[in-house]
Amino acid sequence: GESVGLHLPTLSVQEGDNSIINCAYSNSASDYFIWYKQESGKGPQFIIDIRSNMDKRQGQRVTVLLNKTVKHLSLQIAATQPGDSAVYFCAENMETSGSRLTFGEGTQLTVNP
Amino acid sequence: GAVVSQHPSRVICKSGTSVKIECRSLDFQATTMFWYRQFPKQSLMLMATSNEGSKATYEQGVEKDKFLINHASLTLSTLTVTSAHPEDSSFYICSAIRGPDTQYFGPGTRLTVL
Question: What DSSP character marks residue A94?
């Protein structure tokens, strides 16, 4: 079946740097994408979402970019802090599948002080 | 943001016993909830869609007789792992839909089957 994948399984950055986490998706019919943060032993926490009619969306310290041409999604975290250390998942949804999400493999972000 | 709770947070049981996990939406009503399982250092795998007042919809490969789901009210869904075995040990996470399609996740339940 089609899946959502990530280019980098781990990412290590220095505190204060910007982080970029990437995600490749293969289902061109997906029209809704979400980034989640999961800390160890906890459930995923919603960060930001974007619909396929947009190519960029900004939140507080985070920006999601969507490139439908190459089926690529990225999460940019500005001024990364130690508290940002976690596993980040992208997830995709197709309107025709209801609210069911397909999760990517995840990227472990480590922020070094 | 929306709050979803799970109970218990951790459970250890003997092989062959059944375990019930509760998922509650605390500040909103959810006609649809989802159940996921997650093995260490892996992604979330959708197990089933829990629909209030109707039967759950299971993903391919998930045994409906082993993972019983009941969604008796707009704020509560339960997952019962029947005749649990060590291979059922995992992190079980629920989510609830709020608004058109935003999923909010519970904190997860760590199941260990001895």
Answer: -
